[in-house]
Specification:
Blueprint lengths: L1 E6 L2 H13 L5 E3 L17 E5 L4 H14 L1 E3 L6 E3 L15 H6 L15
Antiparallel strand pairs: 1-3, 2-3, 4-5
């Protein structure tokens, strides 16, 4: 097994490991209990590592990089890759309206709260 990536916490490592398993890649998480040692040991010694077989390393990198790319979209003004949860481009400062954000915002009623009748 070789290291694909390392993370500061178990949650991030588990997210990647679950995605890799879904793609049929054998995964092992190393250091999952080190969270309790944060602060007692140097930071570089408490990282949680995601390990994959060396024969699957290239495929694992492709899956990881593909997932990262889906979390970004080009800025409509300058074309820079901007995380989809950003509302402002980090490169040119243009305001960005995210389709994902719009899809998750619940529709609001046009009726003012003071005129609603509760039964």
């Amino acid at each position: 097994m070789v290291e694909l990536d390392s993370f500061a916490n178990l949650a991030l490592a588990t997210m990647l490991a679950d995605r890799l398993r879904a793609a049929g890649i054998d995964v092992r998480i190393d250091g999952e209990m080190l969270g309790a040692a944060v602060g007692a040991f140097p930071v570089d010694q408490t990282r949680v590592r995601v390990l994959v077989p060396s024969a699957q390393l290239d495929e694992a990198r492709r899956v990881r990089d593909e997932d990262l790319a889906q979390d970004e979209a080009p800025c409509p003004s300058c074309g820079a890759a901007v995380p989809v949860n950003f509302t402002t481009c980090w490169s040119c400062g243009a305001e960005i309206e995210s389709e994902k954000k719009l899809a998750t915002v619940p529709a609001t009623s046009s009726v003012p709260m003071s005129t609603k009748r509760w039964t």
